Amino acid sequence: MVFATRDLTDRGGGGSATALGPLVDTFGRAVSYLRVSVTDRCDFRCVYCMSEHMTFLPKPDLLTLEELDRLCSAFINRGVRKLRLTGGEPLVRRDVMTLFRSLSRHLETGRLEELTVTTNGSQLARYAADLAACGVKRINVSIDTLDADKFRAITRWGDLGKVLDGVKAAQKAGIRVKINAVALKDVNEHEIGSMMEWAHGEGHDLSLIEVMPLGEVGAERVDQYLPLSRVREQLSERYTLIDIDYRTGGPARYMQVKETGGRLGFITPLTHNFCEGCNRVRVTCTGTLYMCLGQEDAADLRSPLRASPDDGVLQAAIDSAIFRKPKGHDFIIDRQTRQPAVHRHMSTTGG
Ligand code: SAM
């Protein structure tokens, strides 16, 4: 690997906290997975994720790429083995490849098992080869429909053709692609079988996600929400779905589809709560640590990060936050519950 890049590790780069132990919460769950939202901005405005007119954070509030590197490295020093960069749209953050390149050093030492990304695919054709060169082996690409007009309607601004070109570029670069689709009542509900056949035909796993009540999006969640229990019933009329033990370290439960030979994952934050096995925490682009996607409690890591070039203060803040990691989330979507579970959008916390 040859990179002409500035070195993000010049300023700290992870400190010297190697003697500190792993992060284990009060329920005995070890935190081994960090998801980092590197920007709250996105070039799409998916109807279930954002409102059409979003106010984004002022740029000076964001952690610099150097600070993001230092923060990620601090978690890796505490036993985080899997790191996912997300957003907003991570690939629209200026110079984001510098961060990937820098973080890839932890793959080379073996301290990090996986560096990955969740993307809407809009910039993937441009970056796929660079991502592969940074050791990214698997990525998630969000595609909710294969109908170009519907895709534009869901994303408000997206171009399906460009995203599919990005998926092809990733495949060409040797990256495994998992397609993520949010199951949306009446929108892609009757297309899920054909999306699955397409994904499996192209060699991709497909994961379906239940819509979560995160942030005001200017629409009724109850009109969007499609329980995956219903999707399973509908798919079972045409396909043989066999539950399997395959896991990727996330909350998805997988099935093998006999007719296509592919894997189908269900992420069911509403119909089946999976918090007992939660191994993850999330950091926003301003350095706010959320110990649970569905709860408001958070810890500011930006101040301790900036307080000292040594990681001692930062590590103490991480410890005290992990101690408060809650047992789980309580999402409800029904006609009576009109408030979101939390006020922040998925794009803030990082999906
Ligand atoms: N821009 C990237 C993308 O599109 O994948 C990464 C960020 S996006 C917030 C991550 C994932 O969260 C996407 O798959 C998106 O569909 C999903 N998502 C956003 N809002 C959601 C919600 N309210 N409920 C469930 N999934 C949501």
Automatic annotation (TrEMBL):
Cofactors: [4Fe-4S] cluster
Residues the entry annotates as binding [4Fe-4S] cluster 2: C275, C278, C292
Binding site for GTP: R35, R84, T118, K178, R280, V281, R282
Keyword Isomerase among UniProt keywords: no
Assigned EC number: 4.1.99.22
GO MF, any single term: cyclic pyranopterin monophosphate synthase activity
Cofactor note: Binds 2 [4Fe-4S] clusters. Binds 1 [4Fe-4S] cluster coordinated with 3 cysteines and an exchangeable S-adenosyl-L-methionine and 1 [4Fe-4S] cluster coordinated with 3 cysteines and the GTP-derived substrate.
Catalytic activity: GTP + AH2 + S-adenosyl-L-methionine = (8S)-3',8-cyclo-7,8-dihydroguanosine 5'-triphosphate + 5'-deoxyadenosine + L-methionine + A + H(+)
Domain Radical SAM core: 26-245
PROSITE patterns: MOAA_NIFB_PQQE, RADICAL_SAM
Pfam families tied to this protein: Mob_synth_C (PF06463), Radical_SAM (PF04055)
Pathway linked to the protein: Cofactor biosynthesis; molybdopterin biosynthesis
Positions of [4Fe-4S] cluster 1 binding: C42, C46, C49
Annotated positions binding S-adenosyl-L-methionine: Y48, G88, S142, M212
One GO term (biological process): Mo-molybdopterin cofactor biosynthetic process
SMART domains: Elp3
Database matches in InterPro entries: Aldolase_TIM, Elp3/MiaA/NifB-like_rSAM, MoaA, MoaA-like, MoaA_NifB_PqqE_Fe-S-bd_CS, MoaA_twitch, MoCo_biosynth_MoaA/MoaC, rSAM
Entry keywords, A to Z: 4Fe-4S, GTP-binding, Iron, Iron-sulfur, Lyase, Metal-binding, Molybdenum cofactor biosynthesis, Nucleotide-binding, S-adenosyl-L-methionine
Keyword match GTP-binding: yes
Subunit-structure text: Monomer and homodimer.
Functional summary from the UniProt entry: Catalyzes the cyclization of GTP to (8S)-3',8-cyclo-7,8-dihydroguanosine 5'-triphosphate.
Alphabetical list of PANTHER family matching this protein: MOLYBDENUM COFACTOR BIOSYNTHESIS PROTEIN 1, MOLYBDOPTERIN COFACTOR SYNTHESIS PROTEIN A
Assigned protein family: Belongs to the radical SAM superfamily. MoaA family.
Protein name stated in the entry: GTP 3',8-cyclase
Gene that this sequence comes from: moaA
